[in-house]
């Protein structure tokens, strides 16, 4: 019996069963998805199991003599390197290396249940079935590597607290730089249509800045700095002003900068201490994770695309630390 032509066309156009697209992982074929490369023949996960690390932004970076794709923020970078270490993977790159099923994926912070990235999407056969939050990732790393070494535990705890310093940099240093919008765009995902409108980009960036204060419970810990919140109407009326911090007016600027400078001094003291610790400490999994986290923060701090900032001046004083961070990242 012949199927009537109109019905045949409908079924050809809308079949009863569809198949997911097969991604060509031989190159980075999606501008927002970056597949890890396999390291040799070994892997710690089954082929059907996969994970995708959702981060704010992925940038192409030259590290030592390798061109690789790296998350723009220090926490995402640290989680990325830890995943490489745990699962015997290499960082995403443009080369024709054999790609794994695991990837780094650029996401808007709005894609996260708590508006905070990174998140880890775990599943099977390219279907995500579990979302692991940023806080859960950090807790898992701490439990797995630092439960038996008190000194390493406290160093790791301080490294995790550097998220606060990162947020201070985002809220104090970058707004005072030459082109804040451009810097934020290099660090955080923005929809292409948003980028086409300066006013829309400005407003979405202001919204992003407002959300930063909630990350890692930052605003709760420093609630005394957030006493003078202004309405969105005040924000819009200042849309052409260059100083983002004043435009958004979420804090006492003088007090905010004072705490930021204290954090910078603490970090500088910590740098000399932790570098000595790493020189003397024997090789271990805990030491490797500390190296990865320290390298991630130092690399992110020194790679910011804004000049004449407090963090830039501090990092320039420690070229050996920058060299250390690149050396650690180049392992992967």
In short:
This protein has about 325 residues and is α+β, with helices and mostly antiparallel strands. It is built from 14 helices and eight strands. The strands form two sheets. The chain has a six-stranded mixed beta sheet with strand order 5-1-6-2-7-8. Strands 3-4 form a two-stranded antiparallel ribbon.
Describe this entry's structure for a reader.
With 332 residues, the protein is of the alpha+beta class. It is built from 14 helices and eight strands. The chain has helices at 5-13, 74-87, 134-145, 150-173, 180-187, 192-195, 198-212, 218-221, 232-237, 244-248, 253-280, 285-302, 310-316, 319-329; strands spanning 33-38, 49-55, 58-63, 66-71, 89-90, 99-106, 119-124, 127-132. The strands form two sheets. Strands 5-1-6-2-7-8 form a six-stranded mixed β-sheet. A two-stranded antiparallel sheet has the order 3-4. β7 and β8 (127-132) form a beta hairpin. α4 (150-173) runs antiparallel to α11 and α12 packs across α14. It is globular, with a radius of gyration of 22 Å. Residues 18-23 and 231-241 have low confidence and may be disordered.
Number of helices: 14
> How would you characterize the largest beta sheet?
6 strands, mixed
Rounded mean pLDDT score:
84
Q: What value does the Rg take, in angstroms?
A: 22 Å
Unreliable spans are 18-23, 231-241
What percentage of residues falls in helices of 4 or more residues?
A: 40-55%
Quaternary state, please? single chain
Q: How big a fraction of the residues is strand?
A: 5-15%
SSE pattern: HEEEEHEEEEHHHHHHHHHHHH
What is the topology, as strand order, of the major beta sheet? Answer: 5-1-6-2-7-8
The total strand number stands at: 8
Distance between the termini: 61 Å
Q: Note the overall shape.
A: globular
Derived from helix and strand composition plus strand pairing, the structural class reads alpha+beta
InterPro entries: SAM35
Organism: Clavispora lusitaniae
Protein name: SAM complex subunit
């Amino acid at each position: 019996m012949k199927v009537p032509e109109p019905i045949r066309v409908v079924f050809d156009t809308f079949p009863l069963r569809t198949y997911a697209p097969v991604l060509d992982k031989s190159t980075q074929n999606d501008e927002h998805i970056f597949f890890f490369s396999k390291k040799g023949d070994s892997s710690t996960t089954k082929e059907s199991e996969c994970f995708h690390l959702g981060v704010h932004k992925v940038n192409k970076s030259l590290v030592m003599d390798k061109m690789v794709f790296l998350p723009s923020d220090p926490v995402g970078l640290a989680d990325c390197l830890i995943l490489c270490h745990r699962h015997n993977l290499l960082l995403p790159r443009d080369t024709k290396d054999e790609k794994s099923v695991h990837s780094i994926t650029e996401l808007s912070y709005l894609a996260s249940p708590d508006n905070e990235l990174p998140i880890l999407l775990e599943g099977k056969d390219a279907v995500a079935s579990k979302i692991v939050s940023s806080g859960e990732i950090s807790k898992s790393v701490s439990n797995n590597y630092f439960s038996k070494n008190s000194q390493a535990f406290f160093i790791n705890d301080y490294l995790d607290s550097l998220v606060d310093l990162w947020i201070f940099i985002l809220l104090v240093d970058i707004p005072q730089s030459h082109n804040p919008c451009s810097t934020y765009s290099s660090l955080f995902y923005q929809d292409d249509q948003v980028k086409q409108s300066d006013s829309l980009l400005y407003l979405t960036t202001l919204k992003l800045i407002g959300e930063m204060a909630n990350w890692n419970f930052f605003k709760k810990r420093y609630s005394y700095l957030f006493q003078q919140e202004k309405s969105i109407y005040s924000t819009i009326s200042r849309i052409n002003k260059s100083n983002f911090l004043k435009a958004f007016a979420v804090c006492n600027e003088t007090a905010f900068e004072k705490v930021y400078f204290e954090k910078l001094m603490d970090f500088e003291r910590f740098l000399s201490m932790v570098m000595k610790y790493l020189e003397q400490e024997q090789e271990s999994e805990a030491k490797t994770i500390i190296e990865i986290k320290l390298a991630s923060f130092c690399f992110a701090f020194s790679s910011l695309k804004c000049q004449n900032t407090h963090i830039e001046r501090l990092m320039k004083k420690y070229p050996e630390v920058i060299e250390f961070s690149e050396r650690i990242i180049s392992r992967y």
